[in-house]
Amino acid sequence: MQFEQGHIYHIYNQGNNRQTIFFERDNYLFFLRKIKEFVCPYADVIAWCLMPNHFHLMVEVRDLLQTIKPTHGVTLSHPVSEKQRSINDSIAIMLRSYTRAINKQQNRSGNLFREATKAECISKSDGITPSFYNTQYGTIINTHNPETEYPQVCFDYIHQNPVRAGLIKNAEDWEFSSYRDYCGMRNGTLINRTCGAKYGINVEAWQ
Q1: How far apart are CA 205 and CA 182, in angstroms?
Q2: DSSP readout, the chain?
Q3: d(Cα 37, Cα 138) in Å, to the nearest integer?
Q4: pLDDT tens digits, residue range 97-113?
Q5: Per-residue pLDDT, 199
Q6: How do residues 41-73 score in pLDDT, each as one tens digit?
């Protein structure tokens, strides 16, 4: 994944061979805590949705590197030095940590997620912004002014994902997305409600 500061990215991954990655409610909540721990130090979360076998994040990147303080004590024989961790490394650590927990819970082994996590830039106008993106439900195409409209399309798509998958009838019925936060049903702290407005994302209609 290639990130630049000050741009919006659609980050997503799914279970290896489309296998389930969230088996019970506590798994979803645990993953949300992981997002807060490993993604939020680098980026503001604009939208998110966790599905039974995949996840979507829409974020604006603030920092590419963070200084990580050592967790072990200082001794004369083991001096402590701070190190830098990239957003890529932090996301990878998050997924490995979650995988270890689920493997233990489910008495399984091996990869839980696909090897490559995708991160599409959706706020640049120099050709990096894609006019389409692939999901397990098909290709979503944006043909009308992608420079300004694609962030809104992605924002809406993330929240409508459970409806498109046939899991629920209305987006507000799905607990594990930021839809409820935007429409006033919940006061979640994971999202930055004002961040998307800079890119023309209409969030007022959701409130």
Answers
A1: 9
A2: ----TT-EEEEEEEBGGG--S--SHHHHHHHHHHHHHHTTTTEEEEEEEEETTEEEEEEEE--SEEEEPPSSPP-SSS----EEEEHHHHHHHHHHHHHHHHHHHHT--S-SB-SPPEEEE-S--SS-S-SEEEETTEEEE--S-HHHHHHHHHHHHHHHHHHHTTS-SSGGG-SSBTHHHHTTS---SSB-TTTGGGGT---GGG-
A3: 31
A4: 999 999 999 999 999 99
A5: 80
A6: 999 999 999 999 999 999 999 999 988 876 655
